[in-house]
């Protein structure tokens, strides 16, 4: 029987993984997913993800596609998901199996992606792996003023990890704002058509230069125009970052 294409919606806690993509000398989310799929389907499976996440970054929603014949357990989505989750480690979960068109692509068909970066200001050992602890509260109004300079289609080379091979540094940011949650936790929300490696963590670090260190809101625009990673702020720790949404026109 001919193979068909399937999308998997997954979520994972990234602390134990060197990001999404398969690595030669380190464990990744893609590797454990591929192994579980191959065990369940009893054939070699290669997944393609919606994008990379860096070491230690979490995902509340990420899609990956793979090709297989729609027979046996694949013809029973609920049973397939239950069996696959039983094979995966506790920190990786499959939420949905979706049969899609044969030319559907988890990476190239995504219309936008959203991230959150979480900060907390009350020392709490139980939330430390999920959020970045800061002793001082920043000027959030000023950081939201600076965030307006991020909006639109621009060259964001200044926030990209050095020596990254990409075809363009142009991204279209559609949302960028800081919001208080429960009056104690501060979350940065950002949505764009695509992101560069390390981009969100560098943006948050630059925002904190403005909110904590007295730089003006216009510093954000100055950094963007410079196209220099050295001009931007230090990247914040990975454990506060979550990929929260990947959107497709057909899902």
From TrEMBL:
Residues 146-249 form the Pseudouridine synthase I TruA alpha/beta domain. The active site is at 54 (nucleophile). It catalyses: uridine(38/39/40) in tRNA = pseudouridine(38/39/40) in tRNA. Gene3D superfamilies: Pseudouridine synthase I, catalytic domain, C-terminal subdomain (3.30.70.660), Pseudouridine synthase I, catalytic domain, N-terminal subdomain (3.30.70.580). Its EC number is 5.4.99.12. InterPro entries: PsdUridine_synth_cat_dom_sf, PsdUridine_synth_TruA, PsdUridine_synth_TruA_a/b_dom, PsdUridine_synth_TruA_C, TruA/RsuA/RluB/E/F_N. It comes from the Bacteria. Formation of pseudouridine at positions 38, 39 and 40 in the anticodon stem and loop of transfer RNAs. This is tRNA pseudouridine synthase A. It comes from Sphingobacterium ginsenosidimutans. The lineage of its organism: Bacteria, Pseudomonadati, Bacteroidota, Sphingobacteriia, Sphingobacteriales. The gene is truA.
